[in-house]
Amino acid sequence: MSTQKIAASKYHSNGNDFMVVAPAQVQEDHYAALTRAICEEHFGLGADGCVFVGEISGEQVSMRIFNRDGGEAGMSGNGFRCGCAFLHHQGLVNQKELTLQTASGIKGYTLLEQEEGSWTFRSRMGTPSFEPAAIPFRAPYQMQDVRGYALDVGGEQVSIAVLSVGNPQCVVFGEQLPREEDFQRLGRGLEGHPDFPERTNVSFVQVVGSNQLKIRLWERGVGPTHSSGTGSCGAAVAAIRAGKVRSPVEISTETGAQQVEWDGRTEILLTGNTRFVAEVNFHWEQQDG
Known about the structure:
By secondary structure, the protein is of the alpha+beta class. The protein folds into 2 domains: about 1-125 and about 275-285, Diaminopimelate Epimerase, Chain A, domain 1; about 130-265, Diaminopimelate Epimerase, Chain A, domain 1 (Roll). It has helices at about 30-40, 75-90, 180-190, 230-240, and strands at about 1-15, 15-20, 50-55, 60-65, 70-75, 95-100, 105-115, 120-125, 145-155, 155-165, 170-175, 200-210, 210-220, 225, 250-255, 255-260, 270-285. The longest helix has 13 residues, at about 75-90. The termini are close together. The relative contact order is 0.19.
């Protein structure tokens, strides 16, 4: 067994927390193992995921993000926002406009406000995709788009809308947010449903106004989480398409709110805050071989 000291910083967006790892410390084929170790609640530092900052060239930055279970996520609105806050916090960039190279394509982040330990960004999240194969979702027959579809989850028929915002999103509307027992059962059942071959994120959504939604989130590879940028985007887009709300939409959880803008045609805009928690040196014990 060998031990390596990893410099990392912790940030959160409305309680959705991430460890951001400074560049050039870990080989890419070790990202998953480090994520599992550093995000573990008791033997590690505890977090929903880990952001790895890659090459920095002016306003161009490469980033990758992994969920707590070590699975890579193509996109995370909150996670990459935390990564951008890290770049400004550490003085690695000074441009307000940043272009991120991610596993789900090029994303743009604009710094709107900065205070001590707090950063607000507007991000360009790309154009949503509704084609089942792109999500991916195994539709039982030829469907161009999945809305109001009754999916069997453990013998219960659950009406879902499905889309991709750089990662799979499953949206469930209800008059109220689900009770804890239903949230746990349906969140787990939908995330791992065989019709989602790469699993999915799940947003349970309550419409509370013409421009307001409340959501509860079950994140792929994490489970219950306080907030999600892509989950907020998925919920807002599904609600706008269903005529339930109009853009811009305030998306709130018990720990805070974000704003989503979408005109029904072009890319999604997400605005939200990130806060600094701590800088750490993580002593990573690795199994040799």
